[in-house]
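re: ur question from the group chat, yeah i did fold both. here u go
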Amino acid sequence: MMFDLGSYNYLWSVFILFIGGFAVLLTSLLTERRFLLVAVGAVFAAISLILAIVQNFPGVIIGGSTSGSLTSIYLSGFSKLFFIAILVPAFLSLVGLAKSPMSRKPGLMIFIFLISLGFMLLAISSYNLLFIFVAFEGVSIPTYVLAAYGKSDSELEAAVKYFIIGAFSTGLIIFGISLYYISTGSLFLGVTPYFHSIYFLAMGVLIFGFGFKLAVFPLHGWAIDTYTGTSNPISSYLSTSSKIMTLVVLFNILLTSPLFFNYLKIIFAIIAILTMTFGNIVAISENNVKRMLAYSSIAQAGYLSIVFLVAGTGALNLAIISLFLYALAYGLMKAGSFLAMDSMGNYDIDNFSGLWKRNPAFAVSLSILLLSLAGFPGTLGFIGKYFLFLSVLSTGTSLAYLVVIISVINSVVSFYYYGRVIMYMFWRKGPEKSVENNYLLYTSAFLTVLFGVLYFLLFSYAQNVFPALMSFFPGGI
């Protein structure tokens, strides 16, 4: 086959995005019609997603060096699953740019978007810290530009805060990588260290550096203003695809570091509890729905972070699939919710009053996504949380039980502020102004319910690309 890359065939999803970026750039030389440029970019993003879904990835070994041990706890199916979890919300965000205010150069913006998306996929499929860092910066620098691209005061302020915190976290990541190299003599993941104390320090610094990008408490401050100040499609992109990418990169680094597992579980138990509790408590008092969604993103990072408690246990296989389910659910829920704001204009909760009468489909769809974020049965958000909590409970430790109990309590608390928005939409009288249809919102809500009911299809697919799951469910699903 002319285009066969052997063990690197999985990179075709990345190459398609890069090719698409330059195709959009060349098209913009002929016309700056926004809908046409978005359509070209969306076609390439869709091809990349389809390739990620249907392509058979060869097995690969993760980590290793001539002087260290090899770690082979993953298959390439791991990267394939999270390619999908990243590409789905990114595709929705890209299509959302068609109605979002831009500058006179929409072609350049879409080019930057696709290039950053390609680097996201490279970052999660890299198992060398140098490659990870280069790919990560290939994401960070374009997203700084995207955050400020509309040039409004709120976007410029959001971009400056994002850039300053991003530059600081980049410095920490470089410092952590240098400590890792000093302790192991290698930049590959999964290498046995010579100097344990330096190695543990390296892991701690890397958690701190990537923690800023993941927006966990107390490293979350930038995220609120950035998600609130940028345009809705970029808020959607930064809060979903970028966050999922960061989580998976951190997962790759930490889950190939068995000497650090005991510390890892304690650290992330604390991080998860504080992050989800802080995000939910502050969101309760917010009357700006978009800002409430930003705090909700912080709380969701707390739920996602509990996956690290399965490190070194037999529940890892289930945890990986559960993380995929919840990451996909999170991408659909959060992308659809932020993109829904494009139809509202004013994000004050009073503006959502009476939405049921003004646009029933909009009110029902947004309610579905909010209920799914809270973990309501029958939605993909519930399925993702259920299996993620189950995988943590399967470890059988007291710490795991404590974290899951607090997570469930936080999920119940979140019903209050999500339900408050729903109550305003259905039971409050509001303005007579009509609300336009938002088909990205409808699509997100439909997929959230569809896969919430037919979740076993996702499990069957995951079993095919990640056969190790069969060891946890020997009888199948």
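okk and heres the other one u asked abt
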Amino acid sequence: MTSRCSKRAALIAIAAAWWPAAIAHAQTAADLEGTYCLTGVREVGSCLRLTADSRFEYFLAYGAYDERSEGHWTINGGDVVLDSLPYDKTPKFTFKSFQPAEGEKYDIVVVDKTGKSISGINVRATCDGRSIEVGVTGAGGYKVDCSSAPKDVSLGLEMFGLAYQTIQVSDHPGVEKAYVFEFDPGDLGNKRFSATRLRRESRDSLVMTYANTPINELDGKTFTYERE
């Protein structure tokens, strides 16, 4: 009997200690819910939404650069801590086919999985015994200043910090002069957060250090998000 009473007393003591902390955590979490948007940083738009089910959604836009993220948030020491989805799928360019080209020059065309042409892809090529900086694709691709067929083509996306991927094309003989490549973006444009802390400066203000970005002028800046 004494043993049973002792166990019961111990359980009551544990519950008494845990219950106020649980209530406090729930109240704090509820107090943090809402949409917070970036203030004080010119030419940058960004918002963070914290929901009651401990999920978050995030986006940032800077000129032609866009990124987004989603995952879970927790509270640690009064800070909001973000952990996003893994976002570990690597972007990839692959040679797809040839197609007729207008004029005598060689074209580099990059398309998505639906066959739609993609603008803004950075291109390099090796031809005529030299490596050349070709430029950036437009809606119709980009014409390479080569008198002979390219030996290889390198494609990248500098805006997103995506390094060039070199693709050998000399083993793809064809009579048409437009080289078509397909781009699988993978998780490009999805920002990964791993135990990223946002300090709570006031009831409606969260502050974080913006890092791990291809935008050099923004890397390491302090971002303050105010609740809408």
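fwiw on the second one: The chain has three domains: 1-32, 33-87+189-227, 92-184. The first strand starts at residue 34 and ends at 39. idk if thats what u expected
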